[in-house]
Give the backbone structure.
Amino acid sequence: MFGNRDLDSGRTKCAMASRGCTALSALLGVFMFHAACAGGDISISWSEPIQLGPGGYARVHRLSDGRLMAAYERRGDLMVRFCERGCLDKWTEPQCAARGFAVTNALGAVRVNLANAEFAQLATGRILLACNMRPAGKKAEVHPYAIAIAASDDAGANWSPLKIVYKGRESADGIVRGCYEPFILPLSGGAAQMFYADETPYTEGRSKYQEISVIETADGGETWSIPRTASYAPKRRDGMPVVLQMGEWRYLAIESNPARTRLHPQIIRSRVVDNWRKVVGAPSQDRFEPFREPRNWEEHYGGAPYIAATENYILLSWQECADRGEFATFRTKACVAAMPKAEVKDGRITAMRGVSTPPGQDGAKMRWNALCPLGGDRFLLVSDVAGKIVLWPGRVAEVARPCRDVRFKPLQRGTMLYGDTTRLGPERPFAKDPTVIRHGGRYLMYYSACSYDEAHVPSGLPKGRRGWCGAIAESTNLVDWVRIGDIVVDGAPFAGGWVAPCVKKFDGKVHLFAQGVPPPRRKGEKVNNVLWHATGDDGVHFACADGKPAFAPKNGWSVNRAIDAEVYRVGDRMMLMYATRERPGAKIQQLGMAWAPWGCGYGADDWTEISVDAPFFKPEHKWEMSCIEAPTVIRRKGIWYMFYAGAYNHERQQIGLAWSTDGVTFTRFRDAPVLPHGPEGSWNAWESGHPGVFEDDDGQVYLFYQGKETRSGDYRLSCLKVEFVD
């Protein structure tokens, strides 16, 4: 059987200028690709689609060996493909499991196509591949519609010839009556049930009534029972069955058309012990609408449902369009909804919500969709999009909410206090602006070091490296740190700088974003700090590719200055936060935001400003005074948390916290600092500021920050454990 395996106090909204909201709203439209599409308290998010190639009516399930198998129809044949665990974009070449065929007899000639592919792996390991034999041109008098299976006992490498397990009634009056859409439910051993839609019992006149029938095998598909009716709504069409067994119930997702409605999803059920002993009619306590909020099925079509379960949720997909013109051309969109398993009451699935469709697909002819759980609450939506198979990885979750509280605890190994003694001497350790990664079996901390005083300048040190610069220290326990050296970047047009560093690991590299002043283009030119980007492999040696700044704001509200970089990923975008000042005046430090495509070079031409007309975060509370700076971001349980510094250095800077569900718009966690300065006489009695958040390999989160005892004192760095209280 298929298993779920892994392939991942008061709050006030930050004010935003009304003009800035326009640009932000446009950005959120871009981010819908990966951001949650919320409905009620359920969200479904989507990742980059995977193109599987030409074909239709595809179904994907995980086999017992961990591989994914896809089965689908192409030009009347049944095709299969496989991919290894964790490699959704690497599939084997298509393999034909069964071919359509031609039939000629006294009643004529016809090509019999194989359609409606579906499969299951039995507990014995055998794979049964089912299909609908469909005579071209609906020539059922030459060869009837039928349900057939092929079997594989070697994990899909070879397939037996097709065997008909149910044959539709031949038409004697010229009216086609078919059987369609098989679905296999594996049971114990070699047992299984097969459900399918069947018109053939209803022969009166030109009726198009249809029931759901079930047949059973106990020997791996060698023999099958006679059909029984699982559901039938008198003078209506029950069709396209998909089965989910959960607890004591078996649920059938079907399409049906109760009075005055068009085809749309319904759920019918039978207890496992009852085994469809009683036909589910209409109305019936065992037939119900699955949605929490009523949907407009009087006007909308919603056919071809598919039901599946992830670790915590039940999922339902269907194809939907708004009018008959769209239906005639199958300009349908794929919809997916979900409900928590814990909300199933009295065996009823009636709270589906959070309806979502992959972005940009309205009117794209998304048909015959299916669902495949991937482990946890991840899944695949499998669609036939205009004759090509597309796989949409998705994830379902409750709409994320921030934690109730954030607490800070000391390190178990002792208190960390670090200062660089090379600049001002052993009596005056100094370090500020920390950021930390774990790399190569050690912790690396990057920080800003002040200018040398004359008494401590190393012999022969170039003048350009005597001022402020970034530096690096290492540790094995987060408490004891040893300086490695200054940050030196090959290819940079200046020798010092690279202060207030932001260092992150991604794409197999160590990326350094930091501020520096570019050389003036002409004598006397005033230049501001802007942001630079460099990369390296070992976390110590870096190179700047083109010797040019990576980012400087060019917007309508700030000066051409950027410091305190922070980068983090949101979907397929790299987000950049930076601190800058307003124009004119340049008195108030505020935060701006930009984004670049994930995986680009992160150079000047790659960034698109989001904060075009206004900052996204600015001082609002008395303790923040005239400055918000040093943002640092971590994501936890679907929430982005941004620690930040409020007030300028030397002005009793303290640390605040904000949160976001989309990584773009942030709300203050509370009006007061979450990490204030220390009590009088402590090492950080004057200020605690410039935070740098770090998540270790074991998931423990730490906050590094700077502090000093007096206004004129020297900065040192420390660290606390962070506890998010849910």
About this structure: The first helix runs from residue 18 to 31. Helices lie at 18-31, 324-328.
